[in-house]
């Protein structure tokens, strides 16, 4: 059997998530270079119809009621059993709130190395190198991948979907569920969704987002005024939402919402990887931050190393003048 690169399919509401296609894309690139095959691992309950939209050489389906919501314990046990039975060269798992639990559990169970927060995979001198982010992206670590099986926790939004647009797979194979899925210590009873938000920032064409640099809740008024003058909506990074300054429906980032507006103005946002994942695909990004080394500048089209209050007030004066 040819070498395999396995990709864990993340899905919600009957649809594969964007990061699934990103990982299938990078897996295809790696497989083509190494003469390997891409195996999309689809765990769930009554999910066979999803396999028809997964562009892989093979889709391996493990169907069981306990996997309905991809509960971490059930999904990790199922994935570990599959990988142990036929170890692939690499296993790509989304580094999302769901995937992080699964990847760490499986790596520990199998004794395989795990590279989390992976933002790049490239071949150098015939060897695959995974680049991982540490300390919020302030340090990048290159990890050489050897011949032994390894698990990669890949950041959502780090790879392009272009190489893996939805399409039919090569073959589909359904495998029996491991017996240990009948002996789980935890189970998901229901999926509760938050109440409808006052505004859907995922549909906004213009966004003004604020971070810790705004300093206090009282200063949100200035950002709101700027947003209104631009015809934009106000959003925030996670620390402000955690502080209760804005509702969670306004949070941009991996643990919030992914946005792709035509204009994204970042006021006082340093640009942690979790935040960048949620907004880096905006058409035009303008960042204002006092720190010239802030990661937000790595994705910004225009940046100003300046006091955000001075810039915001100057913009307001120009817009309202």
TrEMBL record:
GO molecular function annotations of the record: electron transfer activity; flavin adenine dinucleotide binding
Swiss-Prot/TrEMBL cofactor(s): FAD
BP GO terms, sorted: fatty acid beta-oxidation using acyl-CoA dehydrogenase
Keywords: Electron transport, FAD, Flavoprotein, Transport
Chain residues that bind FAD: 212, 237-238, 251-255, 268-275, 289
SUPFAM superfamilies with a match to the protein in the record: Adenine nucleotide alpha hydrolases-like, DHS-like NAD/FAD-binding domain
Presence of the UniProt keyword Iron-sulfur in the record: no
Entries under Gene3D superfamilies matching the protein: HUPs (3.40.50.620), TPP-binding domain (3.40.50.1220)
All copies of domain Electron transfer flavoprotein alpha/beta-subunit N-terminal, residue ranges: 5-188
Protein name in UniProt: Electron transfer flavoprotein alpha-subunit
Annotated organism of origin: Thermomicrobium roseum (strain ATCC 27502 / DSM 5159 / P-2)
